[in-house]
Amino acid sequence: MQRSLEVLFAPAELATLHQRDLGNTVCVVFDILRATSTMVTALAHSARSVRPVTDIAEALAWHRTHPDVLLAGERDGLRISAALTRGREFDLGNSPREFTPERVAGRDLVMTTTNGTRALHACAAAGALRVLPAAFLNLGAVARHLQQHLPPHLLLVGSGTLDQTAFEDTLAAGALADALWPTYGDRAAADSAHIARELYRPFAPHLLQAATHSRNGRRLLAHSDLHPDVPFCFQRDVFPVVLELQSDGAVRKSA
Q1: CA distance 244 to 255
Q2: CA geometry: angle at 247 spanning 143 and 95, to 5°?
Q3: How many domains does the chain have?
Q4: Which domain holds residue 230?
Q5: pLDDT digit string (tens) for 166-206?
Q6: Which of 47, 79, 185, 212 has its CA 20 to 30 A from that of 227?
Q7: Alpha-carbon dihedral of residues 225, 227, 228, 230, nearest 10 degrees?
Q8: With b meaning 16 or more CB within 10 Å and e meaning fewer, what string describes 147-178?
Q9: pLDDT digits (tens, 9 = 90+) for 34-90
Q10: Contact predicate 38/95, CB 8 Å
Q11: Strand, coil or helix: what is 157?
């Protein structure tokens, strides 16, 4: 079977996934600022699982039946407040810096964010062989894992911002494509993979500078409490973990 490497740039493209046969496709999902970076950090810091859900009501329903879970998530970049839930502030927001070992070790988390959780669910609902949340923080581990397992079809998915492409997600997809180029190469790569790779390569030596080209990056950098999230999320290869969205709907470390 001939291999393929492709990138989905915008959330609007997720709606087309159900028209495709993804039974031999591994989807790697990026939401660099910040959902997948936060998931990587939480599980690297020994959280037991992170369950992505689509909305606040679903997160609260999980908490009612599983009161020991920690609720995490954001709306408009900020931790979900009691005003939005009509009574209960979430335990954590969507800043990876909050997800310290002291807060999350041994705990199950339920998370809802604006885009990242939606992208994960779209890939799973479309029947992808595997769905791997990824970030710059664990990019090297993900690349090594994929080189060892060599999925026939590899789809790198940017979660985006609202329904638009996110610069930082495309950059991360390009970084992973670049790392896998010796394995997949020109023959397997769609034009979208070439585009993402060519975007990434000039920024590779000074990755953090790319944040100023990102709407999300500029928004977070302008926020007094959240601006440290940007340099945190643009770090390369901090955590040697690979995550996977499993059949029960929870993200855990991949075996």
Answers
A1: 9
A2: 60
A3: 1
A4: 4-253
A5: 999 999 999 999 999 998 887 889 999 999 999 999 999 99
A6: 47
A7: 140
A8: eeeebebbbbbbbbbeeebbbbbbbbbbbbbb
A9: 999 999 999 999 999 999 998 999 999 999 999 999 999 999 889 999 999 988 999
A10: yes
A11: strand
CATH of the domain at 174: 3.90.1560.10
28 CB-near residues (< 8 Å, 6+ apart): 132, 134, 142, 146, 154, 155, 156, 157, 173, 176
Give dist(CA 80, CA 82) in Å, integer. Answer: 7
pLDDT per residue as tens digits for the range 11-31: 999 989 989 999 999 999 999
Q: Which amino acid is at 224?
A: S
Tokens 């959240």 appear where?
Answer: 226
DSSP 3-state assignment of 77?
coil
In the prediction, which pLDDT does 185 show?
80
pLDDT of residue 162: 83
At 52, give phi and psi (nearest 5°): -80, 130
The predicted pLDDT at position 76 comes to 84
HSE value, Cβ hemisphere, 13 Å, CA-based, for 162: 4
Q: What tokens were used for 88?
A: 């209960």
